[in-house]
Amino acid sequence: MAYMRLGDLLLSSGVISHEQLERALELQKESKERLGDVLVQSGIITEQQLIEALRARDDVTILVDEAEYLRKWDVDKL
To answer: What angle do CA 21, 48, 58 make, to 5 degrees?
Structure first.
């Protein structure tokens, strides 16, 4: 799979519209923040949508809450 920019991925998957992407890119130029942060802070996408998009794009597992992850395992038995 070829690397896809976050905005293009969200656009092609229907999570955001072309207008929302354009607005976020304008805000990003002003703020110098990462596009994902701009999208979340402006309420265009949720943090969970950002995590899912990055996970899909980068094909990695992201541990959002390590404590929650560890609760799923009985660490004493490992």
So the answer is: 75
Q: Supply angle C-alpha 58, 60, 56, rounded to 5.
A: 50
Q: Based on the number of CB atoms within 10 Å of its own CB, is 74 exposed (0-12), middle (13-18) or buried (19 or more)?
A: exposed
Alpha helices in 1-78 (DSSP H): 6-12, 18-31, 35-41, 47-58, 66-71
Instruction: Name the helix (H) or strand (E) containing 50.
Output: helix 47-58
Q: What pLDDT was estimated at residue 77? A: 47
State the average pLDDT for the chain. Answer: 82
